[in-house]
Write a structure and sequence with these properties.
The chain has eleven helices and ten strands. The strands form two sheets. A six-stranded mixed β-sheet has the order 6-7-8-3-9-10, sandwiched between helices. A four-stranded antiparallel β-sheet has the order 2-1-4-5, covered by helices on one side. Helix 3 packs across helix 4, helix 3 packs parallel to helix 5 and helix 4 packs across helix 5. The longest helix has 18 residues. The chain has three domains: 164 residues, P-loop containing nucleotide triphosphate hydrolases (Rossmann fold, 3-Layer(aba) Sandwich); 67 residues, no CATH class; 35 residues, no CATH class. The protein is α/β, with parallel strands linked by helices. Bound molecules: adenosine-5'-triphosphate (ATP) and magnesium ion. Magnesium ion (MG) binds next to helix 1. Magnesium ion binds next to helix 1.
């Protein structure tokens, strides 16, 4: 399928929780093949709720969500799970089987694939996320969080969804682990052709990896565009208590010296510095 073709269309989506909380208000957006998106915004702005509407776990209160041509209101969760995978904010809310093998096999078994195909998918997904088969019989509970997250991702990959949403992949991890998981998602994007959506509060990570950024506030989309453009409007981000990366802010505070306001990384800052000093 060609890049830029629409994969998900969200039209005037409103979502209300049973207790009356309106978490999404009249949200519209489209997601295309070939995209790597960051979904950002303050706590409670609706990022997780939107993701659960995209994978069909929640059905729209008003409006519609169409995934790969399927209206989520009229499609089964199993059918949608093979199109949009959602990796939970906390892998422990997702993992519930008593061995790594069973956890990864759960999805393929649930869609009633023959046992031979289930085995092939478990082995393939484990290989892609770098899980050693010697861990297959281990209870996920006994594994470190980083590995449990890989198990959670492998169990999603086993259903081969085109689009993968990862809710806060780097929370609670140090910089080295964060880059490792992000490089892994980048590999899935570039080599395996997955559409990736990350939900994160980590702005340097957004600057490094996401081509497009969607900013949410109070259940609505405040800004949506190329990350560089979104970061160059700090006054918009401020409304949802998000600050661009420090290096971007440094450049934005120094535009009078000749720096541009859309610097995204340290190497870009160094380039501009050389240009300015070099006169
Ligand atoms: N199960 C629920 N019942 C009622 N209201 C809920 C429920 N889950 C979330 N909410 C509310 O819906 C709104 C959106 O929440 P959501 O979890 O989607 O935000 P978020 O952007 O993912 O936040 P965070 O960054 O903290 O993960 C918030 O007002 C939240 O309190
Ligand atoms: Mg959330």
């Amino acid at each position: 399928m060609a890049d830029n073709e629409v994969y998900v269309a969200v039209e005037n989506l409103t979502y209300q929780y049973p207790d009356g909380t309106v978490a999404l208000r009249d949200v519209s957006l489209t997601i295309h093949h070939g995209e790597f998106i960051a979904l950002i915004g303050q706590n409670g702005s609706g990022k997780t709720t939107l993701s659960k509407c995209l994978n069909g776990l929640f059905k729209p209160t008003k409006g519609r969500v169409v995934v790969d041509g399927l209206d989520t209101r009229h499609s089964s969760i199993t059918n949608l799970a093979t199109r949009v995978g959602y990796v939970f904010q906390n892998p422990d809310h997702q993992i519930f089987n008593n061995s790594v093998w069973k956890e990864i096999a759960y999805g393929p078994r649930n869609i009633q694939l023959p046992e031979e195909e289930v085995k092939a998918r478990v082995e393939e997904s484990a290989r892609v996320v770098g899980l050693d088969p010697s861990l297959f019989d281990t209870h996920p509970f006994f594994l470190p969080k980083g590995i449990r997250q890989r198990v959670a991702i492998a169990s999603i990959l086993a259903l081969r969804p085109k689009m993968i949403i990862v809710d806060e992949p780097t929370t609670g991890q140090d910089m080295k682990q964060s880059l490792e998981i992000m490089d892994f998602l980048k590999m899935l994007h570039e080599e395996k052709g997955h559409i990736i959506v990350i939900i994160t509060h980590d702005m340097p990570i957004v600057g490094m990896y996401a081509k497009r950024t969607i900013v949410m506030a109070q259940g609505q989309i405040l800004a949506d565009g190329p990350t560089r453009e979104v970061f160059s409007h700090p006054e918009v981000l401020e409304k949802t208590f998000v600050e661009p990366p420090q290096i971007t802010r440094l450049a934005q505070m120094s535009t009078d010296l000749g720096f541009s306001k859309d610097v995204m990384s340290v190497p870009e800052m160094v380039d501009q510095f050389r240009r300015i000093v070099g006169g």
